[in-house]
Design a protein that fits this description.
Elements: E1 2-5, H1 14-20, H2 27-30, E2 33-38, H3 46-50, H4 55-75, E3 84-90, H5 99-112, E4 121-126, E5 133-139, H6 155-170, H7 178-181, H8 188-197, H9 202-219, H10 224-233, E6 236-242, E7 248-255, E8 258-261, H11 267-270
Antiparallel strand pairs: 1-3, 2-4, 3-5, 4-5, 6-7, 7-8
Helix pairs in contact: 5-6, 9-10
């Protein structure tokens, strides 16, 4: 399972809610959307959307937006805040969860991130791709006394831990963790390729090998020869490019017949 938190935003929930309910899609695509869970008072927008009406979507938007209005009136503050939270949980192709399982997953995920019954949320599943994925939109403003905000410190680390728990809970494929990619982010395209090929992208496998060699070299207070020897044990070979004076000006690494330059790797990671 892959967990992704999108950038939070200020203002209305209209754009996010219309997006997750497929308001810009064709009817056959909307029919592939399923409402998984919600603690909203307003109606499920899907039946009306399939009939060609957005009335219930807009009513849900108003319900989400009203919370910030109440907070602003209570606190008498015009300070800009970012109440719009949007996350996505994705399964690899071929995996699936039942409706009740998805509901359990969504509730655990939100609970781990400190959302509670007094924070509005809606979760819908999209089945128009080759993998099931659920979008979660939630209001970071709680209806508890004082309208406190759900804290977002360490939320990405908490998200990864929560997803790992869900993988174990439902027996799902374990997604790559930062320790496996040496802390370098994987792009969305690389993640999808990883899901289909059942292995880390080439760049991240290379980073893990180089990182391991660096750490092993440092552990024995080794030098460049130690580093090179450790890489060769993993069938990784170093190639240097020279300037006109014959001095090294660049480095690249070869593995399995493929090459990657030092520039493509995170040098800040490799120089710690």
């Amino acid at each position: 399972m892959i967990g992704k938190i999108f950038p939070k935003s200020v203002g209305s929930f209209k754009g996010r809610i219309r997006y997750i309910f497929g308001c810009t899609k064709h009817d056959h695509e909307i029919s592939q959307i399923v409402t998984i869970d919600s603690n909203c008072i307003s109606n499920d927008p899907l039946p009306a959307l399939l009939a060609g009406r957005e009335d219930d979507v807009l009513e849900m938007v108003r319900e989400f937006d009203q919370v910030e209005i109440l907070r602003r009136m209570s606190l008498d503050s015009e300070k800009a805040i970012k109440p719009v939270f949007h996350a996505m949980l994705s399964l690899r192709p071929g995996e699936s969860l039942t409706g009740p399982q998805w509901r359990m997953a969504v509730r655990k995920y939100l609970d781990d991130l400190s959302f509670n019954e007094n924070t509005k949320y809606i979760a819908v599943m999209h089945r128009d791709k080759d993998h099931e994925h659920v979008h979660i939109v939630a209001n970071r403003i709680s209806l508890d006394e004082g309208f406190p905000m759900v804290k977002d410190s360490n939320e990405r680390s908490i998200s990864m831990d929560s997803v790992s728990d869900l993988e174990d809970m439902f027996g799902l494929w374990k997604a790559p963790r930062p320790k496996d990619t040496w802390g370098v982010s994987i792009t969305h395209a690389e993640l999808q390729a990883s899901l289909k090929d059942d292995e880390l992208p080439f760049k991240h496998r290379m980073i893990a090998k180089i990182a391991g060699a660096i750490e092993a070299t440092n552990a024995v207070n080794g030098d460049m020869f130690t580093f090179t020897r450790l890489l060769r044990k993993q069938k990784v070979y170093i190639h240097l490019t020279l300037n006109e004076e014959g001095q090294p000006k660049g480095i690249s690494f070869e593995f399995d017949g493929k090459y990657i330059s030092g520039r493509q790797l995170k040098r800040t990671r490799c120089c710690r």
